[in-house]
Amino acid sequence: SARLRPPLFCSDAANPIPAGATTFQTQRERLSKASTSSKTWDLHFLGTASCIPTRSRSVSAMVLRHERGAFLFDCGEGTQVLMQEAPLKLSKISHIFLTHLHGDHVFGLPGMLCLLGAARKGSQESLDETDVSSSGKDDKLPPVEIFGPVGTRQFLRGAMQFTMSQITASYRVHELEDIPGLVPGQETAPSNEAVDVDHPRDSQRRRKKGKLGGLKPSAAHGEVPGGRQIF
């Protein structure tokens, strides 16, 4: 049976998604030409489900691919599998951005980094053809830049330590602190003030419209709440 997946949006108008493309396999075959063309960027929605995955939707993950590489936004459980099903190269991921540290946004990150290290060492698109036997970090490749809230570094270190796993790809974590109320160009939180606004009521509008139409107030005005049109 076909596995429904979220659609793929790209900036290449010359190669739109054909109607009836309901699986990643079909999309990959029909978009092979578009994937290799010189377009500015394309956006792949790997997972759009909230909280838990379903049979047709995986949890949060999307890839923004550009000419020099790809950015991964959120990395929910199963993202590494979806990356291999989509017309994407895992080795091209250079930046990972985490919106927050809820499980449905980060549970796939430790496994993704483990396989990312192996994929970046090989030149093949499929991980089945990538050499995963080597150990140790490859300092020749630039580190994967990971941006997330405070706690991202501790989460990754704990996951690697307690699962006795090793990330062969170099990575660098940037923890962003939340500053409540901060607005670009302001050093203090914005102030909120209430002001009076003159909103005419519906009854006032009906009376005004009735006068303009030459109608005088009568018992018929009581029919309006019942749904009858008297003007």
UniProtKB/TrEMBL annotation:
PANTHER family for the chain: ZINC PHOSPHODIESTERASE ELAC PROTEIN 1 (PTHR46018)
Annotated InterPro entries: RibonucZ/Hydroxyglut_hydro (IPR036866)
Molecular function terms from GO: 3'-tRNA processing endoribonuclease activity
Name by which UniProt lists this protein: Metallo-beta-lactamase domain-containing protein
Organism classification: Eukaryota, Sar, Stramenopiles, Ochrophyta, Pinguiophyceae
Native organism: Pinguiococcus pyrenoidosus
Disordered: annotated span: 181-231
GO CC terms, sorted: nucleus
Superkingdom field: Eukaryota
